[in-house]
Q: What sequence folds into this?
């Protein structure tokens, strides 16, 4: 799983039938300090994440192993909304404090 911040949404009115009902989010990968650390990815949202939230996402075949994305052609899926993370005993991120 990869840490990322939700930075936008993608709206698609015409799509493959098996993708109907999915919400798509634009994610920016972050490092352990919460700073931008990579490119962007569009991911299906399995947990109703919102703009500005920190999330965990999975890619590849793992992205199709949620109840929400089973048997759908997804290559990335948001699997969790992050409440906080800690590194070496120090809180690096806490929801609501760094948003």
A:
């Amino acid at each position: 799983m990869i840490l990322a911040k939700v930075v936008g949404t993608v709206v698609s009115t015409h799509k493959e039938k098996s993708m109907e009902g999915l919400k798509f989010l634009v994610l920016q990968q972050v490092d352990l300090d919460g700073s931008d650390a990579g490119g962007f990815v569009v991911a299906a949202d399995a947990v109703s994440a919102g703009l500005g939230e920190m999330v965990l996402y999975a890619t590849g075949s793992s992205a199709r192993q949620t109840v929400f994305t089973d048997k759908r052609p997804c290559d990335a899926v948001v699997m969790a909304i992050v409440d906080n993370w800690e590194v070496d005993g120090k809180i690096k991120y806490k929801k609501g404090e760094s948003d």
Remarks:
- DSSP finds no helices and seven strands in the chain.
- The chain has one domain: 2-12+22-94.
- Strands lie at 2-10, 24-30, 36-45, 54-59, 76-81, 84-87, 90-94.
